[in-house]
């Protein structure tokens, strides 16, 4: 019964302290603060005294403005060793802190106060544990509560802590050594050293400490003169600047930080400052790359209405138009002379891998039919075959099957999407070995009908292409490569005939493929064969003139030699 009465008295005494600290006034708004409590839990602190200290901490917390951008709180306890109850970064809600304090179990060993101060200095107030960086100038406050004489040295380590900017309050209870308290505390000592006769009276320190932290709103009551922001700290204030600015020498004005001048921006051409940041800018005629730092030459062909009939090539700050081989650029610098209609065997290799996706495959088929629109499709003119490839290769229709453009376009629309992988090398092999065979409808080589292969792909090949890409060109097939999206430029160039700028086309996505038509229109422009083994050449072309001259001189030489031999023979007969 006597024990129960003692506990009731204790609860009666404890409850008012917690309430008194909480209700002493409005919650304290001190501005940002990093606060660490260093609690003595040595064996000399009896259980009910430790319980009083626990209630004191809870009550004190309820008078603080706790939060990640306000007061951050950490708690460590010590005896012969040091234990972190929770670091500064652990909690942003008061309720979580109270729960951790109520679960605290005392260590009940020696009293190594110097070791605890060293831990607070090196660990508890580190940025890793949640303390704000020194450049943010957030006050760091340690409250040491002890009831005895330290068993290690405290003066030197406390001086080191104070030198690092930690403000130390030393609270001694009952048997605490006053000399040690004064050696630990920050000056002025009369404001940082508290000695109470018993744990029952520790709430007196709590009230004084709370009053000390809160004090007056110095920013509101004094002419602070801060250009950007004024921050209250216990008993005073300091100025801070907005992001992108730094405090001037007068500690009130703010100067814009020149991040470009620091030389770490990485901009290839120009660095432009903006508040708290910077951005890179390129010279005229260049555009910023995806990394937002390096620059590449602006592709004027994609950015202006160039008007080139066949192909536009960007050259620095300008561009020029090109015509396909065998056609001349006209005086307007944009159009090409007309191409004679002629024979050609055209095989289209279309990527049907899963990366294309069904809706884009329909765009590919529409693109193929737009190519067919500018061809003279007929058995005697242009013949068209179509091969689809993924993890395997499938001939959709061979060269000799359809004799009109309408038939070819209808067959293209009926092609079904294969999906799966991307075996471009296998497709090239199939084209070389089968698609241009006479059995598939290709005309005999003796007719000199040009053979043209056009590969359409949107990604990297899953097999080797080098052997069959080279073999196709060795077989006299003129190769064109059209890439979309993630197509690999090196592979496109390896597939295509030389020069690459006339035989490689690229679009960033399937929706923009149509601009490639002007590059392909007229590329497939063969010379017309008139009979087996005979080529039709313009008599005005330089090569034709040279050949004609050579043939004529040869004929004259032959006639002259025959005349001489005939005269010599007639002379012999006369004898």
Task: Describe the structure using short key phrases.
six-stranded mixed beta sheet; 24 strands; 575 residues; 18 helices; disordered C terminus; Rossmann fold
Task: Show unreliable segments.
Answer: 1-26, 526-549, 551-575
Give the tally of β-strands: 24
Number of helical elements = 18
Quote the beta fraction: 15-25%
Average pLDDT number? 79
Quote the CATH topology of the domain at 33-214. Answer: Rossmann fold
What is the terminal separation in angstroms? 170 Å
Structural class: alpha/beta
In which order are the strands of the major sheet placed? Answer: 3-2-1-4-5-6
State the shape: elongated
> What is the CATH superfamily of the domain at 33-214?
von Willebrand factor, type A domain
* CATH class call of the domain at 33-214: Alpha Beta
What portion of residues is helical?
Answer: 25-40%
- Main β-sheet: number of strands, strand sense, barrel status? 6 strands, mixed
Radius of gyration: 45 Å
User: Any guess at the CATH architecture of the domain at 33-214?
Assistant: 3-Layer(aba) Sandwich
């Amino acid at each position: 019964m006597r024990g129960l009465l003692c506990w009731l008295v204790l609860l009666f005494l404890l409850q008012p302290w917690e309430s008194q600290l909480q209700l002493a006034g409005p919650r304290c708004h001190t501005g940002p603060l990093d606060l660490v409590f260093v609690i003595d839990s040595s064996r000399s602190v009896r259980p009910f005294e430790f319980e009083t200290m626990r209630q004191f901490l809870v009550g004190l917390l309820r008078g603080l403005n706790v939060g990640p951008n306000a007061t951050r709180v950490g708690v460590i306890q010590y005896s012969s060793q040091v234990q972190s109850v929770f670091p500064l970064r652990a909690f942003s809600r008061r309720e979580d802190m109270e729960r951790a304090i109520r679960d605290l179990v005392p260590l009940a060993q020696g009293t190594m106060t110097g070791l605890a101060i060293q831990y607070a200095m090196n660990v508890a107030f580190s940025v890793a544990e949640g303390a704000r960086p020194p450049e943010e100038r957030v006050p760091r406050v340690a409250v040491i509560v002890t009831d005895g004489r330290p068993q290690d040295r405290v003066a030197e380590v406390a001086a080191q802590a104070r030198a690092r900017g930690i403000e130390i309050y030393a609270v001694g209870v009952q048997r605490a050594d006053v000399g040690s308290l004064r050696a630990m505390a920050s000056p002025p000592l009369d404001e940082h050293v508290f000695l109470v006769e018993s744990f029952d009276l520790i709430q007196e320190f709590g009230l004084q400490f709370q009053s000390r932290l809160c004090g007056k709103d110095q920013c509101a009551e004094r002419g602070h003169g801060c250009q950007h922001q004024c921050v209250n700290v216990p008993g005073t204030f300091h100025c801070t600047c907005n992001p992108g600015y730094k405090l001037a020498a007068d500690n009130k004005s703010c100067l814009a930080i020149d991040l470009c001048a620091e030389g770490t921006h990485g901009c290839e051409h120009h660095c432009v400052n903006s508040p708290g940041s910077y951005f890179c800018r390129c010279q005229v005629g260049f555009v910023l790359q995806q990394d937002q730092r390096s620059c590449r030459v602006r592709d004027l062909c994609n950015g202006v209405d160039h008007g080139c009939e066949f192909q536009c090539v960007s050259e620095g700050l300008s561009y020029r138009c090109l015509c396909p081989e065998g056609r001349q650029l006209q005086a307007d610098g944009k159009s090409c002379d007309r191409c004679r209609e002629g024979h050609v065997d055209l095989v289209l290799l279309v990527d049907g891998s899963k990366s294309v996706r069904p809706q884009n495959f329909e765009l590919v088929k529409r693109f193929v039919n737009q190519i067919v629109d500018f061809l003279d499709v007929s058995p005697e003119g242009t013949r068209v075959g179509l091969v689809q490839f993924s993890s395997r290769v499938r001939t959709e229709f061979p060269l000799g099957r359809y004799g009109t453009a309408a038939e070819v376009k209808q067959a293209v629309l009926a092609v079904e999407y294969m999906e799966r992988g991307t075996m471009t090398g296998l497709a090239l092999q199939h084209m070389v070995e089968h698609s241009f065979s006479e059995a598939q409808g290709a005309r005999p080589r003796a007719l000199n009908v040009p053979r043209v292969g056009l590969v359409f792909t949107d990604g990297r090949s899953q097999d080797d292409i080098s052997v069959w890409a080279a073999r196709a060109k060795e077989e006299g097939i003129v190769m064109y490569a059209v890439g979309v999206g993630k197509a690999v430029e090196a592979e496109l160039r390896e597939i295509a005939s030389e020069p690459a700028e006339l035989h490689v086309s690229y679009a960033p996505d399937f929706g923009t493929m149509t601009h490639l038509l002007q590059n392909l229109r007229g590329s497939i422009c063969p010379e017309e064969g008139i009979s087996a083994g005979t080529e039709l050449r313009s008599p005005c072309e330089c090569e034709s003139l040279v050949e004609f001259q050579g043939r004529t001189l040869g004929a004259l030489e032959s006639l002259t030699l025959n005349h001489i031999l005939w005269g010599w023979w007639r002379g012999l007969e006369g004898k």
